[in-house]
Structure formats: C-alpha cells, structure tokens
Specification:
alpha/beta, seven-stranded mixed β-sheet, 21% strand
Length: 540
C-alpha cells in the first residue's frame, strides 16, 4: 500500500490521506486525527551549551552558523526584578525544503511536504545572578490573537510568516520578552545524537506510532541513533500495549489522550537523557566536539545579535548548572472537546485555550518574578486607578459589557465606555487589547488581565473610547480575585468560580467544551520511554 499523501495549506494546516483526512488501513488514534509533529527543539537547550562550549572552534562557528534577521527581540534588562536575565526562544521547524539533503524518512519537499510550523516552542530562561536555568514549553495548539499579521491562529502557525512573527506573538500574547532566537531542523537533531554515539532509553511497554515511524515491540533498554531518537520525540499519535492488551497488531492498541501535551512530557524526559549523555561524554573530548560542531553549526540558525562570544559566555556563566535539575515547565492550557474550532467562519482543527490564572502563575515562576510584576519590563504593574479601560460585549450575552465594566470599576480601574463587538464563535477567548506597543500600555493590559480568570489573553490591537485597554468579552471568564492554584508540580485547579467585587460577568471555566487546565509538570505515564540505569534497567 502506498504511503498516504501529505499536503499543507497556506495556514500551515496539514491534510493527511484523502480529502476527509482518512488514512487507508489505519484507524484514527483516539478517534480524532492529530497532526504529526516532532520535538527537535528539545535538544536546543543542550545545543547552545555545546556550541558555546567548543570555544576553540570560535572562528569556524562564526562562519558556519547561519544568522537571520529577527525583529522584536528585546535587550537584556539592566534594571527591575529581571535585571541581567535573558530568554532564548528555541524553535523546532518542520521546513523540509530547507534541508540540504532530502530524506524520505522526514517527508520530501518535492512531494508536497512543505509546511513551515514551529511545532516545538521552548524558551530557556537564564538568570546569572541566581545562577539558574529554567525551561518553558508552549503547546503548539494554543490559540492566540496575534499568531499572524492577519489575526488569530494556533501559535505554531506564526512561523509561516517568519521568526519575527513568532517572537511578536510570544511578546504580545504571553508577555514573555525574548532576547535571542535559535531554530533547528531534523538533521541537526539526528547529528547531535549520532555525535554522542547515540542515547539509551528504556521502554516499559511496547509502543507504536504510525506517523513518526516509532515501532518498539518489546520492553527494555534500547540504543537509539539519531533517526530512531527522532521517531521517539516526534511521536504524538502514540499507541501502547499495556497490561491486558493481547492484540499483536499495534494499530489496535490503545491510543493516549492529549497527544500534544504528552509529546512535550516525553520530550522533557528525552532532554534529561540527552543531558546525561552530554555530561558522560564531556565537552573536552576532541572527537566528540568535532562531530558536534561539524554536525550542528552548518544547520543552526540564530538571530544576528547572538554572537559566538555570547554563546561562549553562556558556558562560562552556566557550565556547572545541571540541566536535569532545571525546572521544565509547560504552559497550562484548556484542551478543546469539540473536535474542530470554528472562528470567524474558519475551521482550525484541535485547539487549546489559555487559562489566565494558571498561566500567569507559571510564567511568573519561570521568569522568577512576583505576581505584581510587569513580566515584560520587571517593573511593578500600574495601579488600577491609573489605567483607562473600555469593555465590548463579544458574545451577545445580555448586559455582559455593562456587568464587566461595573466589576472592573469596583476593583479601581478607570472605566470609560462600553459597547458591542461581533461574536467570533460559539466558544471565544476574552481578549485584553492594549492600544500601542509602549511598555506602559502593555503593562496596563497585564494589570487588567490579572484581575480576570478563565480563558483570557492579552493582545496588541485597537481600543475604543480612547482607552489604554479594551476588554472584548468571551465565553469563559470572570472578574475578581483569581481562583487558588496548586504548585506547578501538581495538577492545576480548574477555575470553577471566582470571588468578585460585583457581578460575575460570565459563566467561569465550567464549560464542557474544554477540559480543566492542564498541569505545568506532568509525571511520565507507564508507557512513556525514560532513562536506563547503568545496568540496563528502568531508570527513575
């Protein structure tokens, strides 16, 4: 049977199989089709250290690494709560057409596999004062207002318009400043693993993924070369043969849920395994160093400001940090339950909504700042009385704009007007728009967003009535004190209600259209591959 065909449309969406998305001879995992993705970005944290660590190759690196123009990057802050810190955006690109040598295992550009998406979005936070490193993964299905210059989309679709647009979306919608940008491809991943002589992973149960090519039919500790490691970290249609499963046919094994988030969980584990392999090899082995440099540098793209000396300085400042002990967080999201999101008449497939209370807690922890801090500048957020706010009813719910305005006014915000905005769909995010790119306006939007709970997100966009900030109401939000959340090491508490100073302006996040917010840290599941012990057993 010939392999199914893949096509990509302008939005970055993929169609696999026939026009209905059916793949001959293959059951849709979990009853829903989800796109094949990969996890190249998981090695980016180690790669920056590797490239910088080979300081003896500085001249070579400077001429081999590709530097690209990326707009929207921020200077390293010199004052405020985040002084001296920097955030490096690590992106795994699906661009097969950019590969120097085409490989059928990845899909061929000549056969129409030409989508460009940031299927892995990972941010590395470096704090030289605390001598600490933390990692934040952003789920690629997160629906954000500024994904494209034309408007909302999944965050992984931003890269279609270039790295600057992805940086813009993260800056404007999540309030995370980005200082540097690194993008990697399939070959870079495989070359790193091969340069280290492969890695070992333990498979507790047989697992299979028809889309990534993963087919591990027996438990045990397995040596993985670059190609087979890529199959592991790309897997997001995983099926497993757990206890009680007797069928010898992998296509009939159970499929895991939350495939996007499950892949991130496994990718974080792979990063730990890879970091252990790097530590074992060391950075002073000239053979390993040469293989890493020659395999990585020619296919590594970074922003123009990310110099070789910057990379070397990273090693000098952070060479003793244990990547295995670095916090690895995932932005909490609400996963949709309705199959294909309809927004302004367009279909966007499976999506995830933000959850402002949990998201802000995790972003603050990741950046190492307090809850009343402007995450973009490190300065205190403005007082409500200094912020002018208007409200537009974005759902058509009776009196929603007026009730929201009353509640925000009771919190001290200076309310200047109400109105209506055409509904975008049955389910909608509440968007807190700020008028200009000025730090003051974005800080004002953050202050308003911190006073809301539910599916809420900030965005640069038009405001009304001369206000700094305009709130366009959605279907899942409330005004008031954020609901309590647990530690990021446990499951996030669903936003089932909020204490308000006035009227709850909409039904909080109790809609059955979405699952409760996901956790920032998730434990491995019984079928997930993991580290091996030195004796070849199952690692912890």
């Amino acid at each position: 049977m010939p392999p199914p065909t893949c096509t990509f449309d302008e939005s970055g969406l993929i169609t696999l199989g026939d026009e209905m998305g059916r793949v001959p001879g293959h059951r849709r995992p979990g009853g829903r089709y989800r796109k094949t993705r990969w996890a190249l970005g998981t090695v980016a944290v180690v790669l920056v250290v590797l490239v910088g660590g080979t300081a003896g190759y500085a001249w070579y690196l400077n001429h081999e690494i590709h530097r690209i123009d990326v707009r929207g990057l921020r200077d390293v802050p010199t004052s405020g709560a985040d002084a001296g810190t920097e955030n490096i955006l690590m992106v795994g690109s699906t661009d097969r057409c950019a590969l120097k040598v085409q490989n059928a295992a990845y899909g061929l550009c000549s056969q129409g596999v030409n989508g460009v998406n940031s299927d892995v979005v990972m941010i590395l936070h470096l704090d030289p004062t605390k001598h600490s490193v933390s990692i934040l993964s952003i789920p690629r299905d997160l629906f954000v207002p500024n994904a494209r210059t034309s408007g909302a989309n999944k965050i992984d679709a931003a890269l279609y318009q270039g790295p600057s647009q992805l940086v813009t979306a993260i800056n404007e919608n999540l309030g995370i400043p980005i200082q540097h940008y690194v993008v990697l491809n399939f070959d870079t991943f495989a070359n790193v693993v091969n340069a280290l002589g492969g890695v070992k992973m333990y498979f507790p149960e047989p697992v299979f993924d028809a889309y990534s090519g993963l087919q591990q039919m027996a438990p045990g500790c397995v040596d993985l070369d670059g190609l087979h490691a890529l199959q592991v970290v790309r897997a997001r249609h995983l099926q497993y043969k757990g206890a009680g499963v007797t069928s010898p046919y992998p296509h009939y094994w159970p499929s895991e849920n939350l495939s996007d988030l499950a892949r991130i969980r496994r990718d974080h584990e792979f990063l730990r395994v890879l970091a252990t392999a790097v530590a074992k090899q060391g950075l002073s082995n000239p053979i390993t160093d040469e293989r890493l440099v020659s395999g990585v540098a020619p296919q590594l793209e970074v922003d123009q400001q990310f110099s070789t000396s910057d990379m070397v300085n990273l090693v000098l400042n952070f060479h003793s940090v244990n990547v295995n002990s670095a916090p690895q967080l995932t932005l909490p999201v609400q996963v949709d339950q309705f199959g294909s999101y309809q927004y302004k008449g367009g279909s966007y497939g499976d999506i995830e909504f933000p959850s402002i209370a949990q998201d802000q807690q995790v972003i603050n922890e990741f950046l190492g700042v307090g809850p009343s801090t402007d995450t973009m500048t490190g300065k205190p957020l403005p007082s409500p009385t200094s912020v002018t706010v208007s409200v537009l009813n974005g759902t058509g719910t009776y009196n929603q704009a007026t009730d929201t305005s009353t509640s925000l006014g009771a919190l001290g915000f200076h309310m200047v007007g109400v109105g209506d905005s055409p509904p975008v769909g049955t389910e909608a995010e509440t968007v807190v728009y700020y008028a200009t790119k000025s730090p003051a306006d974005q800080a004002a939007a953050q202050a308003v967003a911190h006073s809301l709970t539910g599916a809420v997100i900030t965005a640069l966009g038009p405001t009304t009535d001369g206000a700094q900030v305009t709130v366009v109401t959605g279907t899942q939000f409330a005004v008031g004190t954020p609901a309590p959340t647990t530690s990021t090491t446990g499951a996030s508490t669903p936003v089932t209600g909020a204490t308000t100073t006035s009227t709850t302006t909409a039904s909080p996040s109790t809609s059955t259209a979405f699952q409760p917010p996901t956790a920032a840290v998730s434990p491995l599941q019984p079928w997930d591959p993991r580290s091996c012990t030195p004796q070849g057993g199952e690692g912890s």
